[in-house]
Amino acid sequence: ETKTSVKGNNGVIIMRTVSTPSPALILPPCSPGVLNGSSTSSSTFGTETIAMVHTPPTSLTHPQRSLRQPRDQQGAPIDILPDHAFLQIFTHLPTNQLCRCARVCRRWYNLAWDPRLWRSIRLTGDVLHVDRALRVLTRRLCQDTPNVCLTLETVVVSSCRRLTDRGLYTVAQCCPELRRLEVAGCYNVSNEAVFEVVSRCPNLEHLDVSGCSKVTCISLTRDVSFKLSPLHGQQISIRYLDMTDCFALEDEGLHTIAAHCTQLTHLYLRRCVRLTDEGLRFLVIYCPSVRELSVSDCRFISDFGLREIAKLEGRLRYLSIAHCGRITDVGVRYIAKYCNRLRYLNARGCEGLTDHGVEHLAKNCLKLKSLDIGKCPLVSDAGLEQLALNSFNLKRLSLKSCESITGRGLQVVAANCFDLQLLNVQDCDVPLEALRFVKRHCKCCVIEHTNPAFF
């Protein structure tokens, strides 16, 4: 609250108390002091500056112009823009810049805190005191609807390493309409904070906890061993879940996640190195609608796991099994037979894959658009010929470090796959003439190579 004095018509001075918010936002490192003509009080912690905005700026909302005033004393040309034009400009600003704009003048203050601009909060930075920033921002956004912010739908605080459970508690308590949460790389976040978010935000559909090594489970119960049955009625509405680099995730945790998040369509488990085929069995049982799945670098996944994944059948569009060394033609044959609507397959580093596996893919997955079989030493020109004769929709092909590939195989691909847009033949022993042949037949194709003589 601030007190202002106003002189009335009768000469009596009247004291008024004006209630104004006191939002604070931790900004990127900058020089303390005066910013855009607005005085700030600041304190520095190491390399970060905490800028406090105690009251709205006291300048006029619309600077009064007089025809008799000199041109240099008139308002800035930008002041003639209507409010809707300002709002359109402000929609393109990141959160910290929007808060800075609120300190320019009273008119900008009112526009910058328009609820329509605050459907999302996006903060980044290693030195950002993100817990406090979230607390202050949500408090300001809850001014018109006490204790709850009904407009905020997206919170992105990726790579904010100072984020803790306390920051997520703030989001969970104040943002019931949250639909998207990204906390990638915030390794201090734990299961307890994730539980608070999913239990208080029933509309949450997109969750990215990649790099959060302490997250091992996502459920609606504090007892992670308790599994909800499909008839329980309480299910998490998450459709997109990224748990890349959640190293501590095990089969039991994936079982609990699958049982609670039955509507999953996109699931990324890259480098969750403790997962086995048993975890994939639970996933397929509870989440039959999965369209995109990545288990790359999960070294314990084998052909038995691919047999389980194949039960997703025609619903599966995207699959990454890169560097899963236990996978062979047997598992790929399951995928090719049952998942015939597959569009993307990354089998890079699956050294057990041979020409036979590529042939099954080519003859069954006719809609395949992107294929990565790099570092598969047993794939040769024979496999490329089968691929070229069947996969006419192929647009992206990676053969990086395939030592058995020669120019003959590339020429067959170029002569049949006219829509090819990207070809990676880095570290492949292919002659210059073959690369020129590809360029001549696939004019829109970008060729990634290591041949210094080819331009």
Summarize the structure in words.
By secondary structure, the chain is an alpha/beta fold. Helices cover 29% and strands 15% of the residues. The protein is built from 14 helices and 20 strands. It has helices at residues 83-90, 95-101, 106-112, 130-141, 165-174, 191-200, 251-260, 277-286, 303-309, 329-338, 355-364, 381-390, 407-416, 432-441; strands spanning 2-7, 13-18, 24-27, 34-35, 38-39, 41-45, 48-52, 120-122, 154-156, 180-182, 206-208, 240-242, 266-268, 292-294, 318-320, 344-346, 370-372, 396-398, 422-424, 446-448. Helix 6 links the parallel strand 10 (180-182) and strand 11. Helix 8 packs parallel to helix 9. Residues 1-9, 12-54, 60-69 and 229-233 have low confidence and may be disordered. Belongs to the FBXL7 family. It is found in: Cytoplasm, Cytoskeleton, Microtubule organizing center, Centrosome. Residues 55-74 are annotated as: Disordered. It comes from Cyprinus carpio carpio.
Tell me the layout of helices and strands:
Blueprint: E1 2-7, E2 13-18, E3 24-27, E4 34-35, E5 38-39, E6 41-45, E7 48-52, H1 83-90, H2 95-101, H3 106-112, E8 120-122, H4 130-141, E9 154-156, H5 165-174, E10 180-182, H6 191-200, E11 206-208, E12 240-242, H7 251-260, E13 266-268, H8 277-286, E14 292-294, H9 303-309, E15 318-320, H10 329-338, E16 344-346, H11 355-364, E17 370-372, H12 381-390, E18 396-398, H13 407-416, E19 422-424, H14 432-441, E20 446-448
Parallel strand pairs: 8-9, 9-10, 10-11, 11-12, 12-13, 13-14, 14-15, 15-16, 16-17, 17-18, 18-19, 19-20
Antiparallel strand pairs: 1-2, 3-7, 4-5, 6-7
